[in-house]
Specification:
Layout (H helix, E strand, L loop, with lengths): L1 E2 L9 H12 L3 E7 L9 E6 L3 H17 L6 E3 L6 E6 L2 E6 L1 H7 L9 E3 L1 H5 L1 H9 L23 H42 L1
């Protein structure tokens, strides 16, 4: 993934608010990927880990509060009970929160290796991050590759985009599960071999 030092003004204000809310509620391993060049269904993926199902529910409630407070409509929310994977679709932003086991199992980051990896610290605490960069502790500031005023590609109409997004979420889950499935089969196949070796 590409990593740059963004100016917070280059990204939607809601992105920083969501990251701050997740950080304050102790979400782990927070990642922000700019997928606007790779995806026609959303611009940003926010990935986080909650330590348990109750933690995921608490994070969902906090996300709803933050998004509703900005007047942004939530287009979809996966409320699957005890699935270990929470999805909140806020149109240009899509938030995925996993339990630790599912974060490792599905590894969505690996599906978006070409996406721009945005430093979370630049969004959560921009002043400290700017000071760190100035002191040489980070990469030099770089202008964003594109501006929001002049999108490079034409986007699908909002309704079509929302429908495509629902399909894309389902597809991403299928792909992630399919990638995880061979590992289970391989692990299951190894066990009998070990038992057979012990008998000899």
């Amino acid at each position: 993934m590409n990593s740059t030092t963004p100016t917070t003004a280059a990204h939607p204000a809601l992105l920083a608010l969501i990251c701050k809310a997740l950080d304050e509620k102790k979400a782990d391993d927070l990642r922000v990927l700019d997928v606007s060049e790779q995806s026609s269904i959303t611009d940003y993926l926010i990935l986080a880990t909650g330590n348990s199902e109750p933690h995921l529910r608490a994070l969902r409630v906090e996300l709803e509060k933050v998004i509703d407070a900005t007047g942004t409509k939530i287009l979809g929310m996966d409320k699957g009970l005890e699935s270990g994977w929470l999805v909140v679709d806020a149109f240009d932003l899509m938030i995925h929160v996993f339990t630790p086991e599912n974060r490792k199992k599905y590894a969505l980051e690996n599906l978006w290796k070409d996406a721009e990896d945005i430093p979370v610290e630049a969004l959560v605490n921009p002043e400290a991050y700017a000071a760190k960069v100035k002191a040489g502790g980070g990469k030099a500031a770089k202008a964003p590759a594109k501006t929001r005023e002049a999108p490079v590609k034409a986007k699908a109409p909002r309704k079509e985009k929302a429908t495509a997004k629902v399909k894309a979420i389902a597809k991403a889950k299928r792909v992630a599960k399919a990638q995880a499935a061979p590992k289970k089969k391989a692990a299951a196949a190894k066990k009998p071999a070990k038992k057979a070796a012990k008998k000899k």
